[in-house]
């Protein structure tokens, strides 16, 4: 009664233990994902349709997406997670050592023996401190992964990151922000069931990610591939702890899907990808030095009925001045009710005091769909005043995108006094770096001075030099095309 998927997966696993074996005879259409060169794919038809419509408009480019010149292949980066786990002596799932006799690389090689040379890939397992159960990930993990990808950016045109599902959405959002202007394709994927067991979703997730990574069209940016769907990196949320269809993008449309075995881009995503391909640049060195230090990590605080902030130690005494208080943590992401509401009477004084000593506060909603707004009196973003509030409302950004964007700011911002710090933080969180805030599309002025003034209108005149131009997304005109 085993399905064909199960039989093939089990045979593939056995082959890595017993002997090499050619599985071309076992290929089925859903697994082969036939090469674009052998057939007119749905993706090619979609591009052709878009080209025809573009050519009908004066001034429109006849080629919506220009291929990357001389693509240099795909690197698979193994960052651990359920994908590469097996049961240990205690019967618990744990990450298989990269040098084990039966490991992820050997199994993936066996899984792809039936594919063409165009679908080849290189494989590299991260060090033990990064190849982990993703529930142990930290902002430092994101920074190190981004630095590793950057170190390989001259050698590959695409990267597939195998990652645990627990914090996959956070890693994808963080990489989207850190690598916002890169021209390479970065696809994060994983599995709900380990590759080295039967009934696993790992083979299809990997093969789907590989087909998009090696497709003929460029996909500049960071994406998540899971359960036949390609999604924008900043918009992914994990919605199920067990089912294969574990990730959704409820606030943004899909980038593409595997349809009839072919990687197919949605027509709504084509203009965005076109704009990104035209404006993408060489991958800049990630400015994430401060993220390597725990003292620069934000705190996530979920509001709940009856919450008391006196249970949290948000301030500490300045060792140089006993009369002065310092923030224990540099920033708080408040996960508020509904449209961004919370118990003003209980929390307002504590939050305002935290702001007064230099703390940063960003507010997002606990809901899967929708955005924060200020129509209610209990709106957290207005606790510090309706105008010029130091509390930043994050609109319809997802929780992972909000948290990682706050972390990205802390990881690269220079030393500012608390007034400049609040102004810079509000400007940074309000900007659109990687399409994470499509309700506020970025308009890019002509000159650098105009750019700084347009994005940072409230900063003091002498503060411009204190901020990184690239960290505000000013080098990426493609963002103006990112719309819901």
Characterise the protein shown here.
By secondary structure, the protein is an alpha/beta fold. The protein contains twelve helices and 18 strands. The chain has helices spanning 4-18, 29-32, 42-55, 104-111, 139-151, 168-178, 202-213, 270-279, 344-356, 399-412, 418-430, 448-455; strands spanning 74-78, 85-87, 93-95, 122-125, 158-162, 185-189, 221-226, 229-232, 237-238, 247-248, 256-259, 262-265, 299-302, 315-318, 321-327, 331-336, 360-365, 391-393. The protein has an eight-stranded mixed β-sheet, with helices on both faces. It has a four-stranded parallel β-sheet with strand order 13-16-17-18, sandwiched between helices. A hairpin with a 2-residue loop joins strand 14 and strand 15. The relative contact order is 0.11. Mean pLDDT is 77; it is low at 16-71 and 440-484.
Write the layout of secondary structure elements.
Elements: H1 4-18, H2 29-32, H3 42-55, E1 74-78, E2 85-87, E3 93-95, H4 104-111, E4 122-125, H5 139-151, E5 158-162, H6 168-178, E6 185-189, H7 202-213, E7 221-226, E8 229-232, E9 237-238, E10 247-248, E11 256-259, E12 262-265, H8 270-279, E13 299-302, E14 315-318, E15 321-327, E16 331-336, H9 344-356, E17 360-365, E18 391-393, H10 399-412, H11 418-430, H12 448-455
Parallel strand pairs: 1-4, 1-5, 5-6, 6-7, 13-16, 16-17, 17-18
Antiparallel strand pairs: 2-3, 7-8, 8-11, 9-10, 11-12, 14-15
Helix pairs in contact: 1-4, 5-6, 6-10
């Amino acid at each position: 009664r085993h399905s064909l998927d199960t039989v093939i997966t089990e045979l593939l696993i056995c082959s890595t233990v017993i002997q090499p074996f050619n599985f071309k005879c076992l290929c089925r259409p859903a697994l082969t994902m036939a090469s674009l060169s052998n057939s007119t794919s749905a993706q090619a038809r979609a591009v052709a349709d878009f080209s025809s419509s573009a050519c009908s408009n004066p001034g429109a480019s006849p080629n919506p997406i220009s291929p990357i010149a001389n693509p240099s292949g795909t690197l698979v980066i193994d960052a651990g997670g359920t994908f590469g786990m097996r049961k240990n002596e205690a019967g618990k799932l744990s990450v298989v050592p990269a040098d084990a006799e039966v490991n992820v690389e050997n199994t993936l090689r066996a899984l792809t023996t039936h594919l063409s040379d165009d679908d080849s890939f290189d494989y590299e397992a991260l060090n033990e401190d990064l190849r982990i159960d993703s529930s142990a990930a930290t902002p430092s993990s994101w920074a190190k992964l981004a630095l590793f990808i950057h170190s390989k950016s001259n050698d590959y045109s695409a990267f597939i990151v195998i990652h645990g599902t627990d914090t996959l959405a956070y890693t994808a959002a963080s990489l989207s922000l850190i690598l916002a202007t890169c021209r390479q394709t970065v696809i994060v994927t994983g599995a709900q069931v380990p590759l080295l067991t039967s009934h696993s979703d790992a083979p299809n997730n990997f093969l789907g990610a590989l087909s998009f990574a090696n497709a003929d069209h460029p996909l500049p940016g960071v994406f998540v591939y899971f359960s036949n769907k390609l999604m924008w990196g900043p918009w992914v949320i994990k919605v199920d702890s067990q089912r294969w269809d574990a990730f959704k993008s409820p606030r943004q449309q899909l980038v593409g899907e595997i349809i009839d075995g072919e990687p197919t881009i949605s027509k709504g995503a084509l203009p965005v990808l076109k704009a990104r391909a035209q404006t993408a640049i060489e991958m800049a060195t990630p400015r994430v030095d401060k993220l390597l230090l725990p003292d620069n990590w934000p705190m996530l605080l979920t509001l709940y009925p009856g919450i008391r902030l006196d249970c949290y130690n948000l301030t500490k005494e300045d060792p140089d001045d006993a009369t002065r208080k310092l923030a224990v943590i540099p920033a708080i992401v408040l996960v508020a009710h509904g449209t961004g509401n919370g118990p003003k009477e209980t929390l307002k004084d504590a939050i305002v005091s935290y702001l007064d000593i230099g703390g940063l506060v960003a507010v997002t909603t606990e809901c899967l769909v929708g955005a924060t707004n200020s129509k209610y009196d209990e709106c957290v973003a207005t606790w510090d005043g309706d105008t010029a509030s130091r509390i930043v409302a994050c609109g319809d950004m997802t929780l992972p995108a909000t948290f990682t964007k706050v972390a990205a700011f802390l990881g690269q911002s220079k030393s500012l006094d608390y007034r400049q710090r609040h102004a810079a933080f509000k400007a940074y969180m309000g900007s659109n770096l990687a399409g994470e805030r499509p309700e506020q599309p970025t308009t890019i002025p002509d000159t650098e001075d105009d750019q700084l003034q347009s994005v940072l209108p409230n900063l003091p005149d002498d503060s411009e030099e204190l901020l990184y131009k690239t960290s505000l997304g000013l080098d990426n005109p493609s963002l103006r095309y990112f719309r819901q």
